[in-house]
Amino acid sequence: MIMITGFADEISQELEEQLNVLEEEGIRYLELRGVWGTNVMKLSDSQLDLLEERLHTRGFRISSIASPLGKYGVLEDFAPQLDDMDKAIRIAKRFDVPYIRIFSYYIPQGDDLAIHRDEVMLRMKQLVSKAEAAQIHLVMENDSNLYGTSIQGCLDILQTIDSPYLRLAFDPGNFVINGEQPMAEAYPLLSSYIAYVHVKDARKEGPIFVPAGEGDSEFGSFLQALKQEGFKGFLSVEPHLHKAFPELSDKDRYLVALRALKAMLNQAGMDWN
Predict the structure, then answer these.
(1) Nearest CA among 159, 218, 144 for reference residue 192
(2) Could you tell me if residue 194 is inside a domain?
(3) Residue 236 contacts by C-beta under 8 Å, 6 or more apart in sequence?
(4) CATH, residue 23
(5) Is position 163 within any domain?
(6) Structure-derived torsion over alpha carbons of residues 123, 69, 105, 138, reported in degrees to the nearest 10
(7) Which residue in 273, 143, 139 sits closest to 197, CA to CA?
(8) I want to staple 147 with a disulfide (CB 3.0 to 4.6 A). Which of 104, 204, 209, 248 is the partner?
(9) Residue 273: inside a domain, yes or no?
(10) pLDDT tens digits for 109-133?
């Protein structure tokens, strides 16, 4: 069965408001990127204690630690990121979280990807090695301006690292924003690596992020493909609707995105919890 989760910091920076909105919508998971105005990697021990108590009391679980690991220049010092990886693993273990979201390194503007390929792979291998030892799965997001922004960049990393502990957080909207077709081009090559989905849609014109089903990602066809494959993982709502709906509050933008996904799942005949 599909499980809906989401980046609750797009609702509010206050934990109780995040949980209230999710609870009202029947959602029991969140993807932890930030709370109380603090990135997950910067949360103090006392904040983690409070977070643990509130999630337990309210009956919520974390689907993924949405870390910024790998969202750094490929030429930046790597040692602090290894320390952050250790912290992300500790948090994931503490909260019994199955996934840590990572990225694939910014390439200097104007440089050919091939110049930095070896360094990207070296860094990714070290992150994955730590994940393997901890038995935590990393999911790499195809975000913009990274080595793994394009379909071929993602495929290169996934095939080169060749580990069951590195999988893809497939983001249809990000592919559209970067000029590639999620279904016609990305899915056939990357489907076997998809372990997690970020729910964003986008229109080529602009480009601009929009609710699921209102853009050029063929989101309905994507859901049908997941259904045929028997996908049983997380769909994580990450609206990014500030440009599409500037007049709405953060909470209302989130509800627009979440309800659009629910409607599409119902249309596809896909159960969720």
Answers:
(1) 159
(2) yes
(3) 4, 5, 6, 7, 31, 63, 64, 169, 196, 197, 198, 199
(4) 3.20.20.150
(5) yes
(6) 70
(7) 139
(8) 104
(9) no
(10) 999 999 999 999 999 999 999 999 9
Query: Which residues are CB-neighbours of 84 under 8 A, at least 6 positions away?
Result: 41, 67, 69
Q: Into how many domains does the chain fold?
A: 1
> Which residue has 């998809």 as its token pair?
194
Instruction: Calculate the alpha carbon distances from 147 to 39, 43, 262 in Å.
Output: 23, 28, 32
Structural domain range at position 221: 3-268
Over the stretch 8-64, which tens digit does the pLDDT of each residue have?
Answer: 999 999 999 999 999 999 999 999 999 999 999 999 999 999 999 999 999 999 999
Is residue 12 in a domain? yes
In angstroms, the CA 254 to CA 251 distance is: 5
* CA–CA distances in Å: residue 11 to residues 6, 46, 116: 10, 23, 37
Q: Residue 197: which of 176, 220, 167 has the closest Cα?
A: 167
